[in-house]
Amino acid sequence: MDLAAILQGIGADMAAAPDRGRVADYIPELAQVDPARFGIAVALADGRMLTAGDATVPFSIQSISKVFTLAIALGRLGDQLWARVGREPSGHAFNSILQLEYEKGIPRNPFINAGAIVVTDAILAGHAPREVLGELLTFIRTAAGDDDIHINQRVARSETETGHRNMALAHFLRAHGNLLNPPEKTLGTYFHQCAVDMTCTQLARAGRFLMAAPGMPHLVSPSRVRRINALMMTCGHYDASGDFAYRVGLPGKSGVGGGILAVAPGRASIAVWSPGLNDRGNSHLGSLAMERLARATGWSVFG
Amino acid sequence: MDLAAILQGIGADMAAAPDRGRVADYIPELAQVDPARFGIAVALADGRMLTAGDATVPFSIQSISKVFTLAIALGRLGDQLWARVGREPSGHAFNSILQLEYEKGIPRNPFINAGAIVVTDAILAGHAPREVLGELLTFIRTAAGDDDIHINQRVARSETETGHRNMALAHFLRAHGNLLNPPEKTLGTYFHQCAVDMTCTQLARAGRFLMAAPGMPHLVSPSRVRRINALMMTCGHYDASGDFAYRVGLPGKSGVGGGILAVAPGRASIAVWSPGLNDRGNSHLGSLAMERLARATGWSVFG
Amino acid sequence: MDLAAILQGIGADMAAAPDRGRVADYIPELAQVDPARFGIAVALADGRMLTAGDATVPFSIQSISKVFTLAIALGRLGDQLWARVGREPSGHAFNSILQLEYEKGIPRNPFINAGAIVVTDAILAGHAPREVLGELLTFIRTAAGDDDIHINQRVARSETETGHRNMALAHFLRAHGNLLNPPEKTLGTYFHQCAVDMTCTQLARAGRFLMAAPGMPHLVSPSRVRRINALMMTCGHYDASGDFAYRVGLPGKSGVGGGILAVAPGRASIAVWSPGLNDRGNSHLGSLAMERLARATGWSVFG
Amino acid sequence: MDLAAILQGIGADMAAAPDRGRVADYIPELAQVDPARFGIAVALADGRMLTAGDATVPFSIQSISKVFTLAIALGRLGDQLWARVGREPSGHAFNSILQLEYEKGIPRNPFINAGAIVVTDAILAGHAPREVLGELLTFIRTAAGDDDIHINQRVARSETETGHRNMALAHFLRAHGNLLNPPEKTLGTYFHQCAVDMTCTQLARAGRFLMAAPGMPHLVSPSRVRRINALMMTCGHYDASGDFAYRVGLPGKSGVGGGILAVAPGRASIAVWSPGLNDRGNSHLGSLAMERLARATGWSVFG
C-alpha cells in the first residue's frame, strides 16, 4: 500500500472518530479550538511532502517548541547545559513541582516544563527576550524553509495571565539558584516561545533536520541530532513516553495544542495535529494516527 | 576501520582502565568476582561473531534475564500482562518501593525489580518453579543455539539469603493483590532466574532474536520484538535509561552482575561484561564500551 | 452535670447512632465483630471507675498495644531506642512504606506500624517471643490490676496469614539493617502483641499509669510518662493525630479493633470502643465520644 | 527553687553556651543579627513578669505571627477556614512544595508556609493589605497591652526581594484555586506580617490570651484557645514538632528570627529568643531553654 493511500485512510478515519479527547482548557485561547480538526503531514527523505486532513491549518505548537530551543541551547552551550538539567524521564506529570523538590532544583529533563524553562533561561543569558525569540523564529523558519511562521500574541498573552503553575516552577528554580534571569523575563520568553503557530506541513518540514538524511537542512551536527532524538524518545511525551515508544517506536514530541512531531531517522519527518488530548496530556487522535502510520510503514526504529 | 579492530581497541583500553566502578556487594556470591574482567561479543546479521577480552568467561546475567522472561510472558499472556505492570520509565531506583506505593501496587515497568517479580509471577501461574525455570533455560538455549547454559545454584542461594528488599517488594505486591503465588514461591523462581550464568558470546547469540533480521532465530513476532526493544530503550537501565539512550542510542538491558545486552536492530546483538558498577547500578566500563562501539559504528537507532 | 450522667448520655447516643463507620476487614477475624457495639470506661484519679455501654465486652486492642511495648522498650533501652526510630508525626498513612524509603529505614515514630515493629524487635533482642509476650502480659495485667487478660490466638493467626503489608515493612527494615531478628520472628511476636483482648474497663485501668497521679500504678518514671503522652498526642492517631488533638485535646492511641485509650493527666484514663472505623482508620464513634467527653468535662490539656 | 532563680540560671548558661546554632541567612536583613543574643520572658497567671538576658531587645517574630493571624482568621471565618487548609503535621520541611502537590493545593496545616499564606489570603478578602496589617498590629498590641509594636520595613523589603520559594508556593496555590488574591498582594501582606519586631517581654505578654486563665486578655473564646494551642503542639515547630512535644511538652510556635512562644495553659506565657537556628530551622538555644524551663517547673501538659 502506498503512503499517500495510508495517509488518506488515516485522515478519513480520524476525521470521523467519535472519541476525540479533551481540548486543553487551562489556556483560555486554546480552549476555543475546534476539536473536529485533524491534520497530518509527512516530509520524506526524497523531498516529497504528503498530507491529509487539515494539514495547512495553523495551530499552537506549544511544547514542541522545546525541541527547537534545546537545539539552540546545545549549539550555544554544548554539554554545559547538562549541569542545569538532567536527561532522564521524569516519572511524573509534565508540570510536576514535586520531582523538582526531590531533585533540589535540577529538572529531570529538558522537555518537562521546569527543564524547558531552564533551557530558555540558558539561552536568554545576556540577551533580550526579543533577540532570543527572533533567533528561535529564524531557526524554525530556516528549518522549515518558510518565512511565514509567527508567534500568536493572543495565545502568548493568554498563557501569561494564567500560568501560575509555571510561575511557581520558575520561582522555585530561582530559589534553588537554577534560574539566572528574573522569573518574569524567562517566563515571558517561554510563553512566547510556546505560542508559535505552525501548520502540519510547516512542522513536518521544520523537523527534517532531525532526519539526519542527505539533502535535509543541516542545522546541528549528526551526533547532536542523535542525542535530541534520544531525548525525544525517552522524554518527549511526559509520563507517556514509554507508551509512545512501545506503540509507535519513533522519537516524538507532543504539545498541549494537540500537535506531535515525530522523526523516522533517515526516512521521514512527521507532523500530526488534533486538539483533543488524552489523560496524559498528549493528542488523543494524534497518538493513534502515529501508531497506525508506524505500523503501516514499518518505520519503527526498533526493528 | 573494521569492526574487529574496533573491538580489539575497546578491549585493550577497557582492560587497562584504572577506574573500574564498584562490584555489587549485596549479593555475597557476586562480591567475589574479579573487577579486572572485561569482555565483549558482537553477533552480526551476517552470522559472524566478533569478540574481545573475556568473552568466554561465564558471569551472572542477573536482570538481563528479565528480557527473556518478558518475552515468554508476552507469548503466554499477550497484552493482558499490561493490566498488572506498566510501560513507563520509573524515575526512581531499580528497587524502589516508594513508587510502588504511589502507584498502588502496579509496578511502573517490567524491568524494575517489582515489575520483573510480577512478570515471573505471571508465568508461574499453574506451574511449578522447576517447569518455569526449565522453560526459561530452553528459551535462552534455543536463542543462543547453545545447550551449555545453566543456573548457578550458589548465586541463587546467595540471593535467597539476602534478598530482603525483594521480599519486601513481593509482600507489598501481594498485599495489593498483584502477586498470585506465595511470595516465597515467586521469589524463589525469580532468584533462580537471575542466577543464570552466561558468557558474552552466549549472551550476544541469545540476543539475536531481537535483531529482527533474516536468518536470526525467530522466537517472537516482529511486532513483539519492536515492543521489547522499545521497553529496553526507555526502561532498560533503571534511572539511567535516558542517559544510555543519549550516549549509546541502542535498546539495552543491564544486570548487577556487570553485563549489558544491547541490540542494533537489523545489524547486531551486542553483549558486554565488566563487573564494576557505576553509581546508577549499571556496569561502568560496559556502559563506556557500548558508547564507544555505537559511536565507532554509527549503529544508533537515532540517525 | 455529673460525669456518670455524661457517660450515660454518650452511651445512649452512640448506641443509637446510624452512621457507625466501617469495621476493618483486612484481618478476617476482626471483620466479624458486631458494629453495633459501643462501650466506654473512665478510671478517675480518686479510684472510681465509671462506665457505659459494652464496657465489659472484650475486644482486640491491636495498635493500642504499642503504648505498652513502648513503655517496656524505653525501660529496657532508654534513649538508645531513638537511634532506630524517630519521634515525629508521619504525614502518611499508618502502614506507609513510602516514608520508610524516604527516611532510609528509620520509621518516623513508634506508633506507625514500621516503628512499632522496630520497637518489638528491640525488646526481642536475646529473648524468645514467648518471654517477650509474657513480659507484655505481665505489664498490662499489673497496670490493670487484673490477671484475666489474654492473647486471642485466633486473631493472632488471622493476622499472620494476611499480614503481607507488615511482612513487606519488616523485610524492608531488615534490608536497611534496622531489624535485628528474622522478620518472621519479630512479626510473629508483633502479631501476637496486637492480638491482646481487653474490655474498656480493663483498658481504662491499664492506662492509669499514664495519669501521673498519686495512688496510680507507678510503672514508669514521671518524666517517661510525660514523654509517652507527648508521643500519643502527636502520633497516636496516625494521619489524624492533629485532628484528634484539635477536637479532643488529650493524648490518645487508637487501634483498628475500634478501641481508643486516652489520658487526662492527673485526672482520668479513658477507654472507648466501637468497631466501625472512619476513613483515617480510627474508631468513628469512639472519636466522637472522646470529643464529646472532653468538651463536657473540660479535660483538654490545652486550657 | 524559685522561678526567678531558674530564669537567671538559664540566662547565664545560654549566654555562655559555645554552640549557638546558625543564624538564618536567606533573609539578608536577618543574617546580620548578633548570634550572642539570648533573652527569655515569662508572663505568669498572677500578673508577674520575670525575665533574663536580652528580654527587651526587639527581634523579628517571623512565623510566630502565624499564631496571631490564625486567631484573627478563625474569628472571621470560623470553621470555614478548614476547607482551605488542614490540621495535620506535615511530615516535611516548613517550606515544602512537594507535600502541596501531593495534597492538590490544600496545605497540611496553618503553620507551614503554604498554610500561613492561605490564612493571610483568607483575611485579605475584600480588604487592603494596609487594613489587614493594621488589624494584626491592633490584635498584637491589645494582647500585649503595649502600643510600641511595629513592622520593620527593612525586614519586610528584604523578604520581598528574596522570597522566591514563597512566591513559588503562592503561585502554586493560585494554580490550584486556593489563593483568592493576586500572589503579589497576598505575599506582600505576608512578608509584612512576618516582619513584626517584638521583644521577649512584649511577646510573652502577647501570648497571655492563650493561657486561658482568669484576668488574662480575652481575645478569643476558650474553645478556640484550646484549638490554637492544639495546633501549636502538633504543628508549631515544623518537622520537629514531635520532638518539641517530647522534650518540652508545651504548645509552642517558633520563627526563623530565633524566637519561640510557648504556653503553659493556666500558668504562663513564655517567650524566648536566640537567633542561631538548629538543623530543623528552630532556635537552637531557645529550644534548649524551653526544655530546661519545662523540666524545672514541671509545666508540661503531659503530667
Give a description of the structure:
Four copies of one chain form a homotetramer. Chain A is of the alpha+beta class and 303 residues long. Chain A has two domains: 3-61 and 197-297, DD-peptidase/beta-lactamase superfamily (Beta-lactamase); 63-196, Beta-lactamase, CATH 3.40.710.10. Helix content of chain A is 46%, strand content 12%. The first copy, chain A, contains 13 helices and ten strands. The first copy, chain A, has helices spanning 3-16, 28-31, 65-77, 98-102, 113-124, 129-144, 153-162, 164-175, 183-194, 200-206, 222-235, 241-247, 284-297, and strands spanning 22-23, 39-44, 49-53, 59-60, 150-151, 196-198, 252-254, 259-264, 268-273, 276-277. In chain A, β7 (252-254) and β8 (259-264) form a beta hairpin. In chain A, α11 crosses α12 (241-247). The two termini of chain A are 20 Å apart. The model of chain A has no long low-confidence stretch (mean pLDDT 94). Chains in contact: A-B, A-D, B-C, C-D. At the A-B interface, α11 and α12 of A face α11 and α12 of B.
Task: Give the helix/strand layout.
Four copies of one chain form a homotetramer.
Chain A (H helix, E strand, L loop, with lengths): L2 H14 L5 E2 L4 H4 L7 E6 L4 E5 L5 E2 L4 H13 L20 H5 L10 H12 L4 H16 L5 E2 L1 H10 L1 H12 L7 H12 L1 E3 L1 H7 L15 H14 L5 H7 L4 E3 L4 E6 L3 E6 L2 E2 L6 H14 L6
Antiparallel strand pairs in A: 1-10, 2-3, 2-9, 4-6, 5-6, 7-8, 8-9
Helix pairs in contact in A: 1-13, 3-5, 5-8, 5-9, 6-9, 6-10, 7-9, 8-9, 11-12
Keywords (chains A, B, C, D): Acetylation, Hydrolase
Subunit structure (chains A, B, C, D): Homotetramer.
Family (chains A, B, C, D): Belongs to the glutaminase family.
